[in-house]
């Protein structure tokens, strides 16, 4: 018998794939709809029967965020509201404004000092490139200060280079044509053009310029973990990625991965230092490490740490570790749990099987993915049997067709 809610409820903030995955976790656990508040009504959530969705256009502004949450709290009889956010912007808004929120709210996210070290990418690389973590060779360039690119530092890097904003939140507030989440350049001229384009749009924080680690999507790995409010890691996983999104704004979001699989060997020696790192800095809550295997020195380089669950983190639930359950057990029932590295092999996918067959380049990974499909050890977060309607079915058919088209025509 499933555990029933007592004197608390759950509120999810966001309206993207991540928000839907968390709503599904809630519905699987309690068999009830969950309240979701988002800035915009995206189809993945608004076409769902497992959520009560409310649109708040100003949710991603400090004043709008505080107002929306405090108004919601007034409508709830429960003495405790567990709030879960699904984007970096919302994590920051929650942590920075928590003292202005109704006392009913509880959450498990890191404090502002830790958040800044992880979420602000230029600070992250400057803080941890001292050997604490294996990270790519990096040059931090300050935008908006009318400085020229440092030619000596550029020459110390090998092309192709990756360019990404150190401050994602500020970056996305300056929209411009040809805007990408991450840029890949092959020449000094291309590097200058991208930097000029970003600066001319009004972005004034730092840019992260770093060496591109050889390899395509199959060289990427995901470590998802949960650290309790007592700052002890309770759960982690290690998964090899097969594909990531192809559209410019979605680069970095994986669409195919296999938990418990690594074509290069075992994963224990990779995860253990990450666990030690998180506990040393006093991290709490869900987190996701983006790693890339560097065939040149056979090391797994940390590209970034997301201070929240990712949309692909649903594979923890598919392995028997419901994400909502972990939060409830920790924050509501104060249960201690022994640490576990989950090695169960499960395929998580957002794309049709045909895309996996055609576009996953690693033969061992593709073979294992197809085996798991035959064995029905597959998690498809958006395709939930208890959330069906004609409108949602048409939406999902459209997503499948879109994925087939994108992988055929778009490369990065």
Helix proportion of residues, in percent? 25-40%
Q: What separation lies between the terminal Cα atoms?
A: 47 Å
Into which percentage range does the β-strand content fall?
Answer: 15-25%
CATH architecture of the largest domain: 2-Layer Sandwich
Q: Quickly count the helices.
A: 15
Domains, number: 3
Structural class: alpha/beta
The count of strands amounts to 18
Task: Tell me about this structure.
- The protein is of the alpha/beta class.
- The protein folds into 3 domains: 8-107, Rossmann fold (3-Layer(aba) Sandwich), CATH 3.40.50; 137-211, Dna Ligase, domain 1 (2-Layer Sandwich), CATH 3.30.1490; 217-409, ATP-grasp fold, B domain (D-amino Acid Aminotransferase, Chain A, domain 1, 2-Layer Sandwich), CATH 3.30.470.20.
- 36% of the residues lie in helices and 23% in strands.
- It has helices at residues 17-30, 43-46, 62-74, 88-97, 112-119, 121-128, 151-155, 168-171, 188-200, 268-281, 314-318, 323-332, 353-359, 363-374, 390-409, and strands at 8-13, 34-38, 51-55, 80-85, 105-106, 138-142, 161-165, 183-185, 206-211, 220-227, 233-237, 239-244, 254-259, 285-294, 299-306, 340-342, 346-349, 378-379.
- The strands form 3 sheets. Strands 10, 11, 12, 13, 14, 15, 16, 17 and 18 form a 9-stranded mixed sheet that branches. The protein has a 5-stranded parallel sheet with strand order 3-2-1-4-5. Strands 6-9-7-8 form a 4-stranded antiparallel sheet, sandwiched between helices.
- A hairpin with a 4-residue loop joins strand 14 and strand 15 (299-306).
- Helix 5 crosses helix 6 (121-128).
- It is globular, with a radius of gyration of 21 Å.
- The protein starts with 7 loop residues before the first strand and ends with a helix.
């Amino acid at each position: 018998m499933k555990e029933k809610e007592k004197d608390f409820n759950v509120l999810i903030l966001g309206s993207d794939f991540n928000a839907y995955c968390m709503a599904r976790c809630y519905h699987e656990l309690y068999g009830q709809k969950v309240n979701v508040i988002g800035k915009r009504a995206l189809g993945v959530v608004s076409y769902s029967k497992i959520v009560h969705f409310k649109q708040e256009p100003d949710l991603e502004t400090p004043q709008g965020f505080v107002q929306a949450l405090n108004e919601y709290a007034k409508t709830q009889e429960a003495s405790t509201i567990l709030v879960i956010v699904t984007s970096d912007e919302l994590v920051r808004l929650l942590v920075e404004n928590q003292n202005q929120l109704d006392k009913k709210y509880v959450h498990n996210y890191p404090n502002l000092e830790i958040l800044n070290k992880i979420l602000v990418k230029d600070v992250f690389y400057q803080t941890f490139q001292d050997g604490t973590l294996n990270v790519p060779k990096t040059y931090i360039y300050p935008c908006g200060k009318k400085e020229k690119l440092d030619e000596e530092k550029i020459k110390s890097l090998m092309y192709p280079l990756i360019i990404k904003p150190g401050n994602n939140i500020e970056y996305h507030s300056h929209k411009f044509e040809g805007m990408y989440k991450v840029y890949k350049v092959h020449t000094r001229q291309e590097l200058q053009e991208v930097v000029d384009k970003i600066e001319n749009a009004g972005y004034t924080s730092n840019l992260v310029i770093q060496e591109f680690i050889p390899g395509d999507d199959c060289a990427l790995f995901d470590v998802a973990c949960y650290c309790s409010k007592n700052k002890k890691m309770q759960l982690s996983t290690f998964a090899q990625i097969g594909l990531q999104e192809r559209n410019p704004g979605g680069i970095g979001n994986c669409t195919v991965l296999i938990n418990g699989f690594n074509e290069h060997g075992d994963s224990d020696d990779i995860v253990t230092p990450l666990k030690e790192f998180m506990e040393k800095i006093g991290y709490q809550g869900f987190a996701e490490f983006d790693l890339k295997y560097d065939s040149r020195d056979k090391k797994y380089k940390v590209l970034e740490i997301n201070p929240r669950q990712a949309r692909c983190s649903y594979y923890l639930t598919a392995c028997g570790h419901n994400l909502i359950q972990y939060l409830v057990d920790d924050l509501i029932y104060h249960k201690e749990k022994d640490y576990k590295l989950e090695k169960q092999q499960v395929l998580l996918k957002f794309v049709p099987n045909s895309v996996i067959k055609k576009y996953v380049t690693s033969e061992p990974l593709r073979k294992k993915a197809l085996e798991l499909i035959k064995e029905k050890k597959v998690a498809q977060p958006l395709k939930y049997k208890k959330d069906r309607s004609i409108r949602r079915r048409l939406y999902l058919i459209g997503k499948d067709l879109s994925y087939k088209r994108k992988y055929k025509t778009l490369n990065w």
